[in-house]
Amino acid sequence: MRTPRTSLVAAAFLAACGAPAGGAPSADAPSASAPSASAPSASAAASGSGSPPAAPPPPTPQAAAPTAFPAPAPCGALGCLAFDTPAQAFARVLESGPRVLAVGEAHAQQGSEGIPSTTRRFTELFLPGLAGRASDLIIELWAVDPRCKKEQVARVETEQRAVTQGQAAQNQNEFLALGHAAKRLGIRPHQLTPSCQEYDAIVRAGPDAVTAMLEMIARLTAAEAKALLGREGATGKMVIAYGGALHNDVAPRPGRERWSFGPELSAITAGKYVELDLIVRELIKESESWRALPWYPHFDKEKHPDKAVLFNPAPGSYTLIFPRSS
Question: What's the longest Cα–Cα distance across the chain?
């Protein structure tokens, strides 16, 4: 059977956060990594088919699941707390016992290859501690249905490249490695599979193609998560959604409601939904896109450089900023 092609979609944090309300992503903001015409899908990671890049060795669970932590230090507004390690901050996020953990990242950009990416940090530091607690991981990768017309797919990928061309080359490989690591830990990885009709809709959207993609990603992720939560014999374990930190917003900005699956999944889980944005400190910039984020005015990169800083701007909403890279 032919292995579906995948692409990491143009639906990331700050790609749209920097746009006017209801508008398309801004060109100067970080976005999802560029699509690939031949990479194996996350489902291939689950089934063992395909030949994805070698994944890093599975990290030790001790990195993410210590049993006792020292108290964090208050660090300002929006519930800011400074923790000794990212694992301690992550444990605080999980204290509410969410059914859905929606993780959003600012994707690595070209020129940042020397800095460990958010995806790598999540894979190595946090994912092992979710073994036995999470059943499934939805990764923001597209699996291309081989029945779709090549012309359709090519036109959509062209639209993606306009937004993703500044992304680091390793982003997609690291998403695939995340899927492999999840499978080794007993967490089933899943990708998004747009129908050929959905490709048609994106093509027909013309200048609004990126907006159509953003809406589709939110819709497909919500549908996949609801199916996993509602399947017969569901164990009550956590479902993780991992992608760009835009679609996970529990309270989307006006005009962007259709870009986020947060409100829908929060409702279906009776509030057992957590939005977690992960930020690499060195990637934060002085730009309109970053300044629009609620925690930005309250964060000083020079303070607590060796601490993991956790903001809790609203119930069920967190932003975790990693310590300075060594």
Answer: 57
Q: Which two tokens stand for residue 178?
A: 């995340």
Nearest to 175 by CA among 2, 16, 12: 12
Kindly report the number of other CB atoms within 10 A of residue 305's CB atom: 11
What DSSP designation does 95 have? G
Phi-psi region of 47 (alpha: psi -120 to 50; beta: other; left: phi over 0): alpha
pLDDT tens digits for 125-166? 999 999 999 999 999 998 889 999 999 899 998 887 777 777
Contacts of 200 (CB under 8 A, 6+ apart): 152
**Cα atoms in the 13 Å half-sphere on the side-chain side of 113:** 7
Q: What is the DSSP letter of 124?
A: I
How far is it, in rounded angstroms, from Cα 215 to Cα 54?
Answer: 32
What is the per-residue pLDDT for 109?
76
Among 33, 28, 26, 35, residue whose Cα is nearest residue 243:
33
Helix-strand-coil split of the chain, %, nearest 5: 35, 20, 45
> Which helix or strand (DSSP H or E) is residue 317 part of?
strand 317-321
Ranges under pLDDT 70 in the chain: 1-68, 232-234
pLDDT at residue 37 in the model: 31
What whole-number distance in Å separates Cα of residue 115 and Cα of residue 111?
Answer: 9
Residue 15 has a CB neighbour count (10 Å cut-off) of 29
Token pair of 247, please?
Answer: 């679609």
Question: Percentage of the chain with pLDDT > 90?
Answer: 60
Q: Which residue has the tokens 């059914």?
A: 99
Structural tokens at position 42: 């996350």
Read off the DSSP letter of residue 48.
T
What are 172-185's pLDDT values in tens digits?
889 999 999 999 99
